[in-house]
Amino acid sequence: TTVATHLASELATKNLGRGVCLIDLDLQFGNAAAYLGLSAHLSIADMIAAGSRIDGELLKSVASKTDNGLNVIAAPIDIVPIESVNADQIMRIIDLARAEYDLPTNWTNWTLSLVAASDAIFLVAELSVASLRQAKRQLHLLDSQNISGKHINVIANRVEKRLFRTIDLESAAQALGHPIELSIHNDYPLVRAAHDQGVLIREIRAKSKITGDIENL
Q1: CA quadruple 54, 14, 198, 189: dihedral sign
Q2: Surface-to-core class of residue 192, CB atoms within 10 Å of its CB (0-12 exposed, 13-18 middle, 19+ buried)
């Protein structure tokens, strides 16, 4: 969520196309709106409830907007049963969002459908045995669904300084059988401070390494 909110904010700041829309599809535990300091009264649950009646006006009414112009469709305020949502509902919302904007965890039928329709996929992993094992399993799952290729990008998150690193990027890439294109430095106190204040990291420390990593991403 930290990577998604900061990357979307960076894209919104560049003011490309018709805008950027971040949709929080973590239906049960999504925090994207909170991390951006937004108090969303409406959420993606309102769009799901509208069924076939959704249109561009509803999408824009549900979206909250940050000061830099990022549109955010928040996760539901209440916990939504995952099985109550199907692929058709989610894809209808995504198709509508694509018509309105220039768009830049649990696996379900609808999350796989969404990933299959994506132009770029970012798989975020940490440099630990447990995290890399899960990342490799997810790469195998995607491959089994004929989702593969250069549009799958593995991002190493919370990367320690070389002195404290037990697994390096090259070893991690060999273990995954997939290149690691970019990495994000570890600075948990800074990230936690930003989350607690509902602001972006650059608003606390403009020249942090994490901010530079997000710009590179």
Answers
A1: positive
A2: exposed
**Tens digit of each residue's pLDDT, the chain (217 residues):** 999 999 999 999 987 767 899 999 998 999 999 999 998 889 999 998 888 788 888 888 999 999 999 999 999 988 888 787 888 888 888 888 887 875 445 677 778 888 888 899 999 999 999 899 999 999 999 998 899 888 999 999 999 877 777 889 999 999 999 999 899 999 989 999 999 999 999 999 999 999 999 999 8
d(CA 101, CA 5): 16
- Neighbouring C-alpha atoms within 13 Å toward the C-beta of 28: 8
β-partners of residue 155 are: 124, 182
